[in-house]
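Hi R.,

Here's the chain you asked about this morning:
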Amino acid sequence: MLYYLPVPVKGSLAFLLYVFNTLFFCTFLFLVASIKLLIPWSPLTRQCDRVLNFIATCWIAVNGFNSNLFSRLEWDIRGTQEFSRKEWYLVLSNHQSWVDILVLQKCLNTRIPLLKFFLKKELIWVPVLGLAWWALDFPFMQRYSSAQLKAKPHLKGKDLERTKTACRKFKTIPVSVMNFIEGTRFTPEKHLSQNSDFQHLLSPKAGGIAFVLGAMGEYLHKIVNVTIVYQGSPPTFWQYISGQVKKITVDFEILPITSHMIGDYFNDPAFKDSFCTWLNTLWLEKDRKIETIKMESSSTGSSL
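And here is the predicted structure, written out as tokens:
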């Protein structure tokens, strides 16, 4: 492996490999997506979806090899890991860095169906990746603000209905939907401004995850509750690809999706209260888990 190279060299070479890898696999991705678009025949469409997911899985695998090539990173993987590629999952995780996405992809690739994210509709214009997300059927969301709904009441419920329509294609092929329910990356400044009840987390945004379950609850089978803890401060993308991250702890917990998790969060006050109680309890347990991992690390002489 090439972890002995100087940091600037490792980072530059790794970045070039990420770019080349993305362009290489996107070529095949766009070709298959074009066939799917031009010939909307259901048996062919389903086969194209499988091929598209396979291409994305290969892309993620090569990215994982790329990170191993330039790093001596120690992975501490914990918790229940009885995964299946035939299940439909909702993946929840704390969020500290954009590296979280690479961590989740590396740990879960080929073990569960391809991770897919709910994206703002504006992200479709991101060069190359926007089209790749579209080709892979990532759901693009259009959320309406309170002011927009007040001015145009007829839009109420449209965002949920559009998302449900976009997600119906997931009924025939297993999928894993990823959601960072804090809504943004954790920083000490954001934590202080929230006056959060949690020591290591921001407050979870219940509306977002309730929206996902409302749109896809009939398709999803289980929740994969992921806790990510980095050694030292959360790394930047550059630090990760240039081999400056020494250890990452990833804890998995599989939870069932039950009927009490699915309801009309935005119009049913009783359901909203019960859902928030469940989510905050989950987040308190995650906060305690992070503290335990950090204390274990301190007792062994490293710093997480």
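One quick note: The longest helix spans residues 7-38.

Cheers,
M.
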